[in-house]
Amino acid sequence: MKTAIILFNLGGPDSLDAVKPFLFNLFNDKAIIGAPNPIRWLLAKYISAKRAPIARGIYQHLGGKSPLLEQTQDQAAALQKLLGNDFKVLIAMRYWHPFADQALQEAKAWGAERVILLPLYPQFSTTTTGSSLKQWHQLAANSFGETRTVCCYPVEPGLIRAMAAKIRVEWDQAVGQGRPRLLFSAHGLPQSIIDKGDPYQRQVEQTTAAVVAELGIADLDWAICYQSRVGPAKWIGPSTEDELHRAAADKVAVIVAPVAFVSEHSETLVELDIEYRHLAEKLGIPAYFRAAAVSSHPDFIKGLADLVGDPGAARGKACGSQCLCKGEA
Ligand SMILES: C=CC1=C(C)c2cc3[nH]c(cc4nc(cc5[nH]c(cc1n2)c(C)c5CCC(=O)O)C(CCC(=O)O)=C4C)c(C)c3C=C
Ligand SMILES: [Fe+2]
Ligand SMILES: [Fe+2]
Protein backbone atom coordinates (compact mmCIF):
# COMPACT_ATOMS: atom_id res chain seq x y z
CA MET A 1 0.00 0.00 0.00
CA LYS A 2 1.36 3.44 -0.93
CA THR A 3 1.96 5.13 2.42
CA ALA A 4 2.86 8.77 3.04
CA ILE A 5 4.69 9.52 6.29
CA ILE A 6 4.00 13.04 7.49
CA LEU A 7 6.80 14.28 9.73
CA PHE A 8 5.54 17.13 11.90
CA ASN A 9 7.82 19.76 13.32
CA LEU A 10 7.65 23.34 14.52
CA GLY A 11 9.41 25.12 11.64
CA GLY A 12 11.72 28.07 11.94
CA PRO A 13 12.35 31.32 10.10
CA ASP A 14 14.37 30.98 6.87
CA SER A 15 15.50 34.64 6.95
CA LEU A 16 15.56 37.53 9.40
CA ASP A 17 12.54 39.00 7.58
CA ALA A 18 10.63 35.81 8.30
CA VAL A 19 11.11 36.07 12.08
CA LYS A 20 8.11 38.32 12.78
CA PRO A 21 5.56 36.44 10.61
CA PHE A 22 6.88 33.12 12.03
CA LEU A 23 6.33 34.43 15.56
CA PHE A 24 2.88 35.75 14.59
CA ASN A 25 1.90 32.27 13.33
CA LEU A 26 3.12 30.76 16.60
CA PHE A 27 1.31 33.15 18.93
CA ASN A 28 -1.85 33.13 16.76
CA ASP A 29 -2.19 29.37 17.36
CA LYS A 30 -5.09 28.61 19.73
CA ALA A 31 -2.96 25.82 21.25
CA ILE A 32 -0.42 28.46 22.39
CA ILE A 33 -2.74 31.35 23.27
CA GLY A 34 -6.21 30.09 24.09
CA ALA A 35 -8.06 33.44 23.83
CA PRO A 36 -10.86 33.69 21.23
CA ASN A 37 -10.50 35.85 18.13
CA PRO A 38 -10.14 38.75 17.51
CA ILE A 39 -8.37 38.98 20.91
CA ARG A 40 -5.87 36.22 20.02
CA TRP A 41 -5.08 37.84 16.66
CA LEU A 42 -4.45 41.20 18.36
CA LEU A 43 -2.33 39.60 21.09
CA ALA A 44 -0.33 37.68 18.46
CA LYS A 45 0.32 40.91 16.54
CA TYR A 46 1.46 42.65 19.71
CA ILE A 47 3.61 39.84 21.15
CA SER A 48 5.26 38.95 17.82
CA ALA A 49 6.21 42.61 17.24
CA LYS A 50 7.60 42.84 20.79
CA ARG A 51 9.48 39.51 20.63
CA ALA A 52 10.83 39.95 17.07
CA PRO A 53 13.96 41.98 17.93
CA ILE A 54 14.98 39.44 20.64
CA ALA A 55 14.30 36.52 18.32
CA ARG A 56 16.16 38.18 15.44
CA GLY A 57 19.17 38.49 17.77
CA ILE A 58 18.90 34.73 18.44
CA TYR A 59 18.71 33.81 14.73
CA GLN A 60 21.54 36.22 13.91
CA HIS A 61 23.83 33.84 15.84
CA LEU A 62 22.75 31.13 13.37
CA GLY A 63 23.60 33.07 10.20
CA GLY A 64 20.15 34.69 9.98
CA LYS A 65 17.95 31.58 9.82
CA SER A 66 16.92 28.44 11.65
CA PRO A 67 18.74 25.19 10.76
CA LEU A 68 15.62 23.21 11.75
CA LEU A 69 14.40 22.58 8.21
CA GLU A 70 17.76 21.24 6.97
CA GLN A 71 17.98 18.98 10.04
CA THR A 72 14.45 17.73 9.45
CA GLN A 73 15.20 17.16 5.75
CA ASP A 74 18.23 15.03 6.73
CA GLN A 75 16.03 12.98 9.08
CA ALA A 76 13.37 12.62 6.36
CA ALA A 77 15.98 11.44 3.82
CA ALA A 78 17.44 8.89 6.27
CA LEU A 79 13.96 7.54 7.09
CA GLN A 80 13.01 7.41 3.39
CA LYS A 81 16.13 5.36 2.67
CA LEU A 82 15.24 2.89 5.41
CA LEU A 83 11.56 2.55 4.41
CA GLY A 84 11.97 2.26 0.63
CA ASN A 85 9.76 3.20 -2.32
CA ASP A 86 6.37 2.06 -0.99
CA PHE A 87 6.65 5.03 1.36
CA LYS A 88 6.97 8.76 0.80
CA VAL A 89 8.33 10.82 3.68
CA LEU A 90 7.04 14.42 3.71
CA ILE A 91 7.58 17.35 6.09
CA ALA A 92 4.78 19.46 7.56
CA MET A 93 5.96 22.42 9.63
CA ARG A 94 3.50 24.20 11.91
CA TYR A 95 4.69 27.81 11.85
CA TRP A 96 6.90 28.23 8.77
CA HIS A 97 7.42 26.65 5.36
CA PRO A 98 6.90 23.93 4.23
CA PHE A 99 3.42 24.03 5.78
CA ALA A 100 1.04 21.08 6.17
CA ASP A 101 -1.01 22.00 3.08
CA GLN A 102 2.08 21.47 0.91
CA ALA A 103 2.68 18.02 2.40
CA LEU A 104 -1.00 17.21 1.87
CA GLN A 105 -0.87 18.18 -1.82
CA GLU A 106 2.34 16.17 -2.32
CA ALA A 107 0.84 13.10 -0.63
CA LYS A 108 -2.26 13.33 -2.84
CA ALA A 109 -0.23 13.91 -6.02
CA TRP A 110 1.90 10.85 -5.24
CA GLY A 111 -1.28 8.77 -4.85
CA ALA A 112 -0.97 7.90 -1.14
CA GLU A 113 -3.57 5.37 -0.05
CA ARG A 114 -2.61 5.61 3.59
CA VAL A 115 -0.92 8.26 5.76
CA ILE A 116 0.98 7.84 8.99
CA LEU A 117 1.27 10.98 11.08
CA LEU A 118 4.64 11.03 12.83
CA PRO A 119 5.59 14.02 15.01
CA LEU A 120 9.26 14.82 15.59
CA TYR A 121 8.33 15.43 19.23
CA PRO A 122 8.84 12.30 21.37
CA GLN A 123 6.55 13.64 24.10
CA PHE A 124 2.97 14.65 23.38
CA SER A 125 1.96 18.23 24.14
CA THR A 126 -1.23 19.98 23.13
CA THR A 127 1.02 22.90 22.09
CA THR A 128 3.12 20.91 19.62
CA THR A 129 1.90 17.50 18.40
CA GLY A 130 -1.70 18.26 19.39
CA SER A 131 -1.68 21.49 17.41
CA SER A 132 -0.13 19.87 14.31
CA LEU A 133 -2.53 16.90 14.38
CA LYS A 134 -5.55 19.16 14.76
CA GLN A 135 -4.47 21.25 11.80
CA TRP A 136 -3.80 18.15 9.70
CA HIS A 137 -7.22 16.70 10.40
CA GLN A 138 -8.89 20.01 9.45
CA LEU A 139 -6.97 20.19 6.17
CA ALA A 140 -6.98 16.53 5.16
CA ALA A 141 -10.49 15.57 6.37
CA ASN A 142 -11.20 12.26 4.56
CA SER A 143 -8.54 12.58 1.84
CA PHE A 144 -7.01 9.13 2.42
CA GLY A 145 -8.34 5.61 2.87
CA GLU A 146 -6.53 5.18 6.17
CA THR A 147 -4.80 7.51 8.63
CA ARG A 148 -2.74 6.27 11.57
CA THR A 149 -1.19 8.41 14.26
CA VAL A 150 1.97 8.12 16.30
CA CYS A 151 0.87 10.40 19.13
CA CYS A 152 4.11 10.10 21.12
CA TYR A 153 7.05 7.82 21.75
CA PRO A 154 8.74 8.94 24.98
CA VAL A 155 10.32 5.54 25.65
CA GLU A 156 11.01 4.33 22.09
CA PRO A 157 14.13 2.12 22.43
CA GLY A 158 16.01 3.59 19.43
CA LEU A 159 15.41 7.14 20.66
CA ILE A 160 16.61 6.19 24.13
CA ARG A 161 19.74 4.43 22.81
CA ALA A 162 20.58 7.40 20.57
CA MET A 163 20.14 9.91 23.42
CA ALA A 164 22.30 7.80 25.72
CA ALA A 165 24.99 7.51 23.01
CA LYS A 166 25.13 11.29 22.58
CA ILE A 167 25.36 11.77 26.35
CA ARG A 168 28.12 9.14 26.71
CA VAL A 169 30.39 11.14 24.37
CA GLU A 170 30.24 14.09 26.79
CA TRP A 171 30.27 11.90 29.90
CA ASP A 172 33.61 10.40 28.86
CA GLN A 173 35.08 13.92 28.77
CA ALA A 174 33.34 15.12 31.90
CA VAL A 175 34.34 12.30 34.27
CA GLY A 176 37.80 13.85 34.39
CA GLN A 177 36.07 16.72 36.25
CA GLY A 178 35.00 14.94 39.43
CA ARG A 179 31.37 13.79 39.70
CA PRO A 180 29.52 15.72 36.98
CA ARG A 181 25.78 16.37 37.13
CA LEU A 182 23.67 15.41 34.13
CA LEU A 183 20.97 18.02 33.47
CA PHE A 184 18.16 16.87 31.18
CA SER A 185 16.87 20.12 29.71
CA ALA A 186 13.45 20.16 28.04
CA HIS A 187 11.48 23.01 26.49
CA GLY A 188 9.25 24.43 29.21
CA LEU A 189 5.49 24.94 29.17
CA PRO A 190 3.17 27.29 31.05
CA GLN A 191 1.99 25.60 34.29
CA SER A 192 -1.63 26.36 33.27
CA ILE A 193 -1.29 24.03 30.25
CA ILE A 194 -0.04 21.18 32.46
CA ASP A 195 -2.87 21.87 34.93
CA LYS A 196 -5.38 21.28 32.10
CA GLY A 197 -4.04 17.74 31.70
CA ASP A 198 -1.22 18.06 29.13
CA PRO A 199 0.89 14.85 29.46
CA TYR A 200 4.15 16.48 28.28
CA GLN A 201 5.88 16.81 31.66
CA ARG A 202 5.03 13.22 32.69
CA GLN A 203 6.37 11.97 29.37
CA VAL A 204 9.59 14.03 29.71
CA GLU A 205 10.04 12.25 33.05
CA GLN A 206 9.50 8.87 31.35
CA THR A 207 12.09 9.63 28.66
CA THR A 208 14.60 10.77 31.27
CA ALA A 209 14.11 7.68 33.44
CA ALA A 210 14.61 5.45 30.39
CA VAL A 211 17.82 7.27 29.35
CA VAL A 212 19.20 7.08 32.90
CA ALA A 213 18.49 3.32 32.93
CA GLU A 214 20.11 2.92 29.47
CA LEU A 215 23.24 4.80 30.62
CA GLY A 216 23.62 2.43 33.56
CA ILE A 217 26.09 4.74 35.32
CA ALA A 218 26.41 3.87 39.01
CA ASP A 219 25.33 6.62 41.41
CA LEU A 220 24.58 9.07 38.58
CA ASP A 221 23.77 12.62 39.72
CA TRP A 222 20.97 13.84 37.41
CA ALA A 223 18.05 16.27 37.31
CA ILE A 224 15.33 17.44 34.90
CA CYS A 225 14.97 21.13 34.12
CA TYR A 226 13.05 23.34 31.70
CA GLN A 227 14.34 26.03 29.36
CA SER A 228 13.04 28.66 26.92
CA ARG A 229 10.46 30.42 29.04
CA VAL A 230 8.62 33.16 27.13
CA GLY A 231 6.33 35.78 28.77
CA PRO A 232 5.33 36.59 32.34
CA ALA A 233 3.12 33.55 33.17
CA LYS A 234 4.27 30.81 35.57
CA TRP A 235 6.09 27.99 33.69
CA ILE A 236 6.97 24.52 34.91
CA GLY A 237 10.26 24.18 36.73
CA PRO A 238 12.90 24.00 37.88
CA SER A 239 14.30 26.20 35.15
CA THR A 240 17.63 25.32 33.54
CA GLU A 241 18.99 28.57 35.02
CA ASP A 242 17.93 27.43 38.53
CA GLU A 243 19.76 24.16 38.01
CA LEU A 244 22.91 25.98 36.87
CA HIS A 245 22.80 28.07 40.05
CA ARG A 246 22.46 24.86 42.12
CA ALA A 247 25.39 23.27 40.26
CA ALA A 248 27.49 26.37 40.93
CA ALA A 249 26.63 26.21 44.64
CA ASP A 250 27.55 22.49 44.69
CA LYS A 251 30.71 23.18 42.62
CA VAL A 252 29.95 20.38 40.13
CA ALA A 253 30.57 20.24 36.39
CA VAL A 254 27.42 19.85 34.26
CA ILE A 255 26.44 17.99 31.12
CA VAL A 256 23.32 19.54 29.62
CA ALA A 257 21.36 17.10 27.46
CA PRO A 258 18.31 18.02 25.36
CA VAL A 259 15.55 15.54 26.18
CA ALA A 260 12.61 16.91 24.18
CA PHE A 261 14.40 18.14 21.04
CA VAL A 262 15.51 15.67 18.38
CA SER A 263 17.42 18.20 16.27
CA GLU A 264 19.64 21.23 16.60
CA HIS A 265 18.08 24.69 16.35
CA SER A 266 17.93 28.00 18.20
CA GLU A 267 17.01 26.37 21.51
CA THR A 268 20.13 24.18 21.50
CA LEU A 269 22.69 26.11 19.44
CA VAL A 270 21.98 29.50 21.01
CA GLU A 271 20.22 28.95 24.33
CA LEU A 272 22.22 25.91 25.48
CA ASP A 273 25.51 26.51 23.66
CA ILE A 274 25.85 30.26 24.06
CA GLU A 275 23.52 31.67 26.73
CA TYR A 276 23.63 28.91 29.37
CA ARG A 277 27.32 28.21 28.73
CA HIS A 278 28.00 31.89 29.36
CA LEU A 279 25.91 31.80 32.55
CA ALA A 280 27.78 28.67 33.72
CA GLU A 281 31.12 30.44 33.21
CA LYS A 282 29.86 33.53 35.02
CA LEU A 283 28.67 31.40 37.95
CA GLY A 284 32.02 29.61 38.14
CA ILE A 285 30.73 26.12 37.28
CA PRO A 286 33.91 23.96 36.92
CA ALA A 287 33.05 22.74 33.40
CA TYR A 288 30.07 22.84 31.01
CA PHE A 289 29.36 20.13 28.44
CA ARG A 290 26.41 19.84 26.08
CA ALA A 291 25.19 16.57 24.61
CA ALA A 292 24.15 16.79 20.95
CA ALA A 293 20.56 16.20 19.89
CA VAL A 294 19.92 12.79 18.32
CA SER A 295 19.44 14.34 14.83
CA SER A 296 19.93 11.51 12.29
CA HIS A 297 21.57 9.00 14.63
CA PRO A 298 20.90 5.57 13.05
CA ASP A 299 19.23 4.19 16.20
CA PHE A 300 16.79 7.10 16.27
CA ILE A 301 15.93 6.79 12.57
CA LYS A 302 15.49 3.02 12.99
CA GLY A 303 13.18 3.79 15.93
CA LEU A 304 11.07 6.06 13.71
CA ALA A 305 10.89 3.31 11.09
CA ASP A 306 9.76 0.86 13.78
CA LEU A 307 6.99 3.29 14.77
CA VAL A 308 5.80 3.38 11.16
CA GLY A 309 5.38 -0.40 11.42
CA ASP A 310 3.64 -0.19 14.80
CA PRO A 311 2.41 3.35 15.59
CA GLY A 312 1.32 2.64 19.17
CA ALA A 313 4.44 0.72 20.19
CA ALA A 314 6.24 3.25 22.36
CA ARG A 315 3.36 5.38 23.54
CA GLY A 316 3.86 6.88 26.97
CA LYS A 317 1.99 5.33 29.85
CA ALA A 318 0.04 8.52 30.12
CA CYS A 319 -0.70 9.94 26.71
CA GLY A 320 -4.08 10.50 28.33
CA SER A 321 -7.33 12.26 27.57
CA GLN A 322 -5.78 15.27 25.81
CA CYS A 323 -4.00 13.17 23.24
CA LEU A 324 -5.54 12.94 19.78
CA CYS A 325 -4.51 9.35 19.01
CA LYS A 326 -7.97 8.21 20.18
CA GLY A 327 -6.48 4.90 21.19
CA GLU A 328 -5.53 4.03 17.58
CA ALA A 329 -3.20 1.15 16.82
C1 LIG B 1 4.32 30.56 24.74
C2 LIG B 1 5.07 30.08 23.93
C3 LIG B 1 5.63 28.76 23.61
C4 LIG B 1 5.29 27.46 23.98
C5 LIG B 1 4.17 27.01 24.87
C6 LIG B 1 6.21 26.58 23.31
C7 LIG B 1 6.22 25.18 23.41
C8 LIG B 1 7.15 24.35 22.78
N1 LIG B 1 8.06 24.69 21.80
C9 LIG B 1 8.82 23.60 21.46
C10 LIG B 1 9.88 23.55 20.54
C11 LIG B 1 10.48 24.65 19.94
N2 LIG B 1 10.21 25.97 20.15
C12 LIG B 1 11.04 26.75 19.39
C13 LIG B 1 11.07 28.12 19.32
C14 LIG B 1 10.16 28.97 19.97
N3 LIG B 1 9.18 28.61 20.86
C15 LIG B 1 8.49 29.73 21.28
C16 LIG B 1 7.41 29.78 22.16
C17 LIG B 1 6.77 28.68 22.74
N4 LIG B 1 7.07 27.35 22.59
C18 LIG B 1 9.09 30.86 20.60
C19 LIG B 1 8.62 32.29 20.76
C20 LIG B 1 10.10 30.38 19.78
C21 LIG B 1 10.97 31.20 18.82
C22 LIG B 1 12.31 31.52 19.35
C23 LIG B 1 12.24 32.56 20.41
O1 LIG B 1 11.72 33.64 20.19
O2 LIG B 1 12.70 32.26 21.53
C24 LIG B 1 11.91 25.88 18.65
C25 LIG B 1 13.05 26.30 17.73
C26 LIG B 1 12.67 26.79 16.37
C27 LIG B 1 13.89 27.08 15.55
O3 LIG B 1 14.90 27.58 16.02
O4 LIG B 1 13.83 26.79 14.37
C28 LIG B 1 11.56 24.59 18.97
C29 LIG B 1 12.14 23.34 18.42
C30 LIG B 1 8.37 22.51 22.25
C31 LIG B 1 8.94 21.11 22.19
C32 LIG B 1 7.33 22.99 23.06
C33 LIG B 1 6.48 22.31 24.06
C34 LIG B 1 6.57 21.13 24.48
FE1 LIG C 1 8.85 26.71 21.63
FE1 LIG D 1 -1.98 9.09 22.48
From TrEMBL:
Q: Which reaction does it catalyse?
A: heme b + 2 H(+) = protoporphyrin IX + Fe(2+); Fe-coproporphyrin III + 2 H(+) = coproporphyrin III + Fe(2+)
Write out the GO biological process terms.
heme biosynthetic process
Q: Which domain of life is it from?
A: Bacteria
Q: For this protein, what is any one GO molecular function term?
A: metal ion binding
The EC number of this protein is: 4.98.1.1
Q: Which family does it belong to?
A: Belongs to the ferrochelatase family.
The function of this protein is: Catalyzes the ferrous insertion into protoporphyrin IX.
Q: Which protein, by its recorded name, is this?
A: Ferrochelatase
Gene source species: Magnetospirillum gryphiswaldense (strain DSM 6361 / JCM 21280 / NBRC 15271 / MSR-1)
